[in-house]
Amino acid sequence: MKKLLLIVLSASLFAACNSDDKTVQKSETANEAKVKSAATIDPTAQKLDDLKKLAPVGLDELSAWLPGQLNGIKRNNLTMSSNMGYAIAHADYDKNSKTNMRVTVYDCAGSAGADLYKNIYLNKTKNSQEGEEDYTKTIDLMGGKAVEHHEKQNKITTLTYIAKNRILVVLSARNFEPEQVREAAEKLGTKQS
Predict the structure, then answer these.
(1) Which of 24, 31, 109, 104 is nearest to 63 (CA)?
(2) How far apart are CA 170 and CA 158, in angstroms?
(3) pLDDT in tens, 71-97
(4) Looking at the domain 51-191, which fold is it?
(5) pTM beyond 0.85
(6) Which tens digit of pLDDT belongs to each residue from 91-144?
(7) With DSSP H G I counted as helix, E B as strand and the rest as coil, what are the percentages for the chain, rounded to 5?
(8) Are 156 and 150 in contact (CB under 8 A)?
(9) Distances in Å between the alpha carbon of 109 and those of 64, 162, 165, 188?
């Protein structure tokens, strides 16, 4: 009887020791999986997740991106809204009936804002093209990336870029050279610094 009891105790101790090894191995495997998955996170997906988690800014913060004067032209129209799940503000700067600028700023916070970031900015950064009549290219602007689209015949230039990691800026100008439009965008960026 003592031998039987000794065998049963030995077997249970052996089984208990083995189960701890298996648990340790499983947790090490789980940790390795976490490390591997963290290393393979797509930066674009991470950026979209980060934007979705942000609280929206107020319309007054967006309107600060729209100065009273831009490239020597007074602002003559200002519109703001937050009815579509994201905040938007835009201003028109008309020099005359043929020469003007429009600045539109979007807050990319929240789910709708993150979708805007993806559709208006991110997708455009992947497309470069140059033809006889127009071009679209990604350029460096204020330490980040901007998408510049220029229609040569109509002399329309549009810059699309991200500022402050969440504000989507679209600056469209008619009868301005692309360099002048970039200068205007840089003025908008320095206003906020």
Answers:
(1) 104
(2) 7
(3) 899 999 999 998 888 899 999 999 999
(4) Protein Transport Mog1p; Chain A (3.40.1000)
(5) no
(6) 999 999 999 999 999 999 888 888 888 888 888 888 888 888 999 999 999 888
(7) 45, 30, 25
(8) yes
(9) 17, 12, 10, 20
